[in-house]
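Anyone opening a protein record will find just a pair of labelled lines. A complete record is shown below as an example:
=====
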Amino acid sequence: MRAISGLWRWRHNPLRRRTDQVEGWVCLAALLVILVVGPVIGSLVGGAAQATLQRAVREQRESHRQVTATVVRKLDRSPLEADPEASSGRDLGSRVVADWTAPDGTAHHGTVLAALQSPHRGDHFRLWTDEHGRMVTRPLDSATATTHAVLGGIGAALLTAGVVEGARRLALWRMVRRRYARWDQAWDRAGPDWGRTGTGS
């Protein structure tokens, strides 16, 4: 809106000053950069993020394997864990000691989080590991990667808009300061003769 009001001041207003024109051009340039350059940067960043994340999805699908683990025994709930009555993100499984065989055929034994509410000895559950049986996170899926890329692109566009708006405000602030300084100088020159008879006032 301020860019539009700046445009109005350029036109045929007899009170228009050169600084009004400069302010209007600065506002218009900032608006164009936000509307054109911001989306372009967001698109480039989102595209780069999409390519990187989809490559990570493919690599994780190749390197992460789901194996079947067997419960040896359930571990007691740690006293540092949340109240068992409370429902939270920690209620997704139980900590157990389990055995599993890696894709390369080696046997493994360790403490893991099983996707079982009430695990008992001998229960089976699925576990994500690398080729050597080391536990890894669930592979990133393609839809989640795309969502992250889109959010990254939007964030880049908004950051660009914020930087441009900040630069615009800084430029206008400096112009206003210069204008006030010139006014002060003009008043200082006119001050000694202000209101005296015979000075043309």
User: Anything to note?
Assistant: The chain has a mean pLDDT of 81. The helical segments are 2-10, 18-63, 142-190.
